[in-house]
Design goal:
Nucleotidyltransferase, domain 5; binds zinc ion; single chain; five-stranded mixed sheet; binds 5'-O-[(R)-(carboxyoxy)(hydroxy)phosphoryl]adenosine; alpha/beta
């Protein structure tokens, strides 16, 4: 198929998902595939880095071929390859970066290094290209809980962050304590739908203080103590009620702080992105609150909340348009400067 616009290939392998996507240069998404390794890491209760990188090596070539075929494009239609450079697991990132660089080199096109968080933020526009700027973005994933003020597309000012655990970590660790396996977030979400969220009153840390910052380690400890106490007193534990109550505590804090930021920065748009944004209770509360407050809310559909390459391709497109390409010497960087170290995260490439 010959395309006037050409297209961009996106690759994401920062953790335990091997993903690729093809995006047309006008921003239209042609294909996106994710191969998850959850069934492999599940038996170990968390991601095993060595296994993750081996799995990426096994799947990356086929996933790229699948998205190229689905998009009905050929190598000559590609104008650039956008790859997550970091942060993430070193071995996992290296597979995607080297594969992407190799492809780009062979095709005689540039490669673009994408910061993983920048990818998540870009997902706000995947399905809502008209999402207004300036806006506030809440990034809630397994490793991050960050609030950004976005004065413009591809400009990010960090305005709040977790001081300890990320929201996704709180979900995963809580789920582990409840015996729900890995990754715990989706399992806890599922179980909570059958429970009463008012059954147990877990603390809402930093709800009234801490400005726009978060802290989730206290909620996790409260759950541990609750379970211990119940076991010691021989009290029966209604798992669904506990899950729903625990989830409510996390979600309430996220919603409250996100809208506090929207009010403070007087913006019309709120984007909520990252794996935890797939949570059904969070989505429901955000939607209700946004309609009450007249705020334009964008939450990508669940498959674009968790790690995917469509978001990487879209973030890469911004860089492509600006002519910001990576050099052949650049490598994967597990600790690619995280947004929280800078007041302003200027895209790190
Ligand atoms: O963005 P993501 O796929 O990877 C990272 O960049 O970390 O986020 C993964 C996190 C995990 O902690 C996972 O448990 C959580 O997102 N997650 C959820 C749900 N789906 C994924 N947490 C709560 N409810 C969900 N439905
Ligand atoms: Zn992620």
């Amino acid at each position: 198929m010959s395309l006037d616009h050409g297209c961009l290939l996106g690759i994401e392998t920062s953790c335990d998902e091997t993903a690729a996507a093809v995006l047309r240069l006008d921003g239209h998404l042609l294909s996106s595939e994710v191969v998850s390794q959850h069934h492999i890491h599940n038996q170990f209760g968390g991601v095993v880095p060595e296994l993750a990188s081996r799995q990426h090596i096994q799947h990356i070539e086929r996933v790229v071929q699948v998205v190229m075929k689905e998009a009905q494009v050929s190598w000559k239609d590609l104008r650039a390859v956008a790859v997550t450079r970091g942060p993430g697991l070193a071995g996992s990132l290296t597979v995607g970066v080297n594969f992407g660089k190799g492809l780009a080199y062979a095709a005689g096109i540039p490669w673009i290094a994408v910061h993983h968080l920048e990818g998540h933020i870009a997902s706000a526009w995947l399905e809502q290209p008209e999402f207004p700027i300036p806006a506030v973005a809440l990034v809630v994933s397994g490793g991050h809980t960050h609030l950004y003020y976005l004065p413009q597309r591809a400009q990010y000012r960090l305005i709040g962050r977790t001081l300890d655990d990320a929201a996704g970590e709180a979900f995963d660790k809580g789920a582990k304590m409840l015996g729900l396996g890995y990754p715990g977030g989706p399992a806890l979400d599922c179980l909570a739908q059958k429970g009463d969220c008012h059954a147990v009153r877990f603390p809402r840390p930093y709800l009234q203080r801490g400005g726009l910052n978060f802290s989730f380690s206290g909620i996790k400890t409260a759950l541990l103590y609750y379970l211990r106490k119940a076991q010691m007193s021989g009290q029966s534990i209604a798992l669904a009620d506990v899950a729903a109550s625990y989830q409510e505590a996390i979600v309430e804090v996220l919603v409250e702080k996100a809208f506090r930021a929207v009010r403070h920065y007087r913006v019309k748009g709120l984007a909520v992105v990252g794996g935890v944004a797939a949570n059904s209770r969070l989505r429901a509360l955000l939607t209700a609150r946004a309609s009450q407050a007249g705020v334009q809310l964008t939450i990508p559909r669940p498959r674009f909340c968790t790690d995917n390459a469509a978001m990487v391709a879209l973030a890469g497109l911004e860089a492509y348009r600006a002519g910001v390409y990576a050099t052949w010497e650049m490598d994967a960087m597990a600790d690619l400067p995280a947004a929280h170290r800078e007041e302003c995260l200027v895209p790190v490439r």
